Predict the structure of LuxR family quorum-sensing system transcriptional regulator CciR.
Amino acid sequence: MERPPMTAISRFQGLATRLSDQTSLFASMNFPEVAKEAFEVKFGRFVDQADGITQSEQLFDLLSIFALNFDCPWIAYDSLTPEQNALKPARSNPAMMLNYPDEWRVRYFEMGYDKIAPIIRSVRKRAGAFRWSEVYNDANTTEDERLIFKEAAKFGLRSGISVPLHGPDGSFAIMSFAQPGDREFQNRTITYLQLAAIHFHLRIAGFGSSSGNEKTPTLSQREKECILWTARGKSSWETGKILGISVNTVNFHVKNAMRKLETASRTAAAIKAVSFGLIEL
């Protein structure tokens, strides 16, 4: 019997669950099964709709709507160069897209907060999504930097997370989600927002390609096997035991897969491999 084609919902729900299980930022919080299923459906719908969009502004609007499912009315995306140490005003950087309150945007740049933004410094050092509260409470964060968080809260941005999006050429982008409440983001919420940010970033990068159509890369059988077990939450050591190969060999094939998929992280490579239909979870 022919196997029915997989939708974005079925392709990504397993990956979302496994990534959430690996999240160790805080102790896991209760997340009702009904809510889990609802968010899986909403995320799958976001991916399916995103794949049909060819304009960055429309894609940003779609992501904004998706973020509202997690009580995040404000999101921001900015692509930075390796030498760029601060955010630049939207008018001088077309790669920046955000819907933060206008009053906060004016205040942010007038005060020169973009020159000392602690989030940017943290993004360069991290691979996964992180809560703003982590940066605020970090011993290396200065009082001037903490002032930025305090002022942001006065304008309504009381809690947030940021997702580092590193590129293979040393460039990187940052996606942030903010909410008006003081409560911390749940692990599963972070998982879905991080997956959505990565998918958004990959789509934006695809818009800049010369052909406009991304060619499906060719992975060897071993590369597929290694990236598959990576997507299933296995470490290189565990993958090596499963496949009967060394850790170095696993890392070699994973890096090759990342290079072919043009991603800078294993998570992004796994998402892209699933999107292309190269692996099934």
In short: Residues 221-276 form a domain with the Arc Repressor Mutant, subunit A fold (CATH 1.10.10.10).
